[in-house]
User: What shape does this take?
Amino acid sequence: MGCFMRKYTVQAKLSAVRDYCAGEAGLRDVAHRHDVDFSSLRQWVAAYQVHGPAALEVKKVQHYSAEFRMSVLKRMREEQLSYRQVAALFDIRKFNIVGDWQRRYDEGGENALLSQPRRTGSTKKMPKPPGPAQPLLPDESRSRDELIAELNQLRLENDYLKKLDALVQKKRAAQQKKRKS
Assistant: This one.
């Protein structure tokens, strides 16, 4: 594929994802068959399983609030999710941004998540030694909106797990049917 990022149409993404979800071939085979990047296909499938076809549409550049970033990191830590998994769960298209948030949080605590990282090529200052990480707030001291946002995320995850279970059952049934034939 080379060093450049290739843009895929929504229809191409959807076609590859649906082919994979049919359960007849693995990610690598489907990626090869549709001439798409394997890593991209894996990301599309994860997002599609949680958010449906809308997850594959072109999305404007997002600017995430510090509260949102903290909720993503908290969820990732509590459930021991990978960057890819938590990105799919929260509909974050570029999963590696979660790693950036984690690094910034580890280096500077919650305050480090308040500002956007600089994207200019200017010289960087020497990093400050990391201070102790600030613990997350207990439920009693969180706002109603934060708790509602977490509840919505939990509902979303529950739906994701149900869909994932259904897909696993469907794949097993297809494999058993294949063995019988």
